[in-house]
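dumping the sequnces here before i forget
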Amino acid sequence: DQQVKQNSPSLSVQEGRISILNCDYTNSMFDYFLWYKKYPAEGPTFLISISSIKDKNEDGRFTVFLNKSAKHLSLHIVPSQPGDSAVYFCAASASTGNQFYFGTGTSLTVIP
Amino acid sequence: KAGVTQTPRYLIKTRGQQVTLSCSPISGHRSVSWYQQTPGQGLQFLFEYFSETQRNKGNFPGRFSGRQFSNSRSEMNVSTLELGDSALYLCASGQGAGTEAFFGQGTRLTVV
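..and the predicted 3d for all of it:
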């Protein structure tokens, strides 16, 4: 039962353009969402988070948008850089616990 | 401050053996969670400890167990290893529900 889904396994973007990574969830109890970046054989690195009381959170080149009615969130990276090439995971949790449910990841390739 | 430290980084074990993995969380973090990452299943939640108590447990067999010490350090034990236990095991620490979790580099376990 995959409660967090990333339907695009991969994405290629030209350097300098916008990268948009999408994530859908099914559990309406989720109220805290995060994005992680991961390189092979390393642990995920925290990028940005958003709570359900907001619909947007920005940190430098990274912006996360949350659409609660659609149970959808997205990560925008502007401008994309070759160093952004990695696998991106979205994760969700409910305030009742500290268990994160992860999507299966989207592999982003930024082409120089 | 120091990040999450996992030891060892790599481990090769034989079927039927047992293994213990260690995780030292970020100073001040009382929540420690463990995840298993495999190519087919993504990141799957194993369990979470907070102040030495297991608060949440994922859908894994009883061969997977853990504990947390008074200094918040945590260990994970897998008994009677199976080939399918080969995976990257990740530890994450945080301050509790509704806050981000920071991951260690992981322990790559190979069962032969």
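Residues 52 and 68 of chain A are 7 Å apart (CA to CA).
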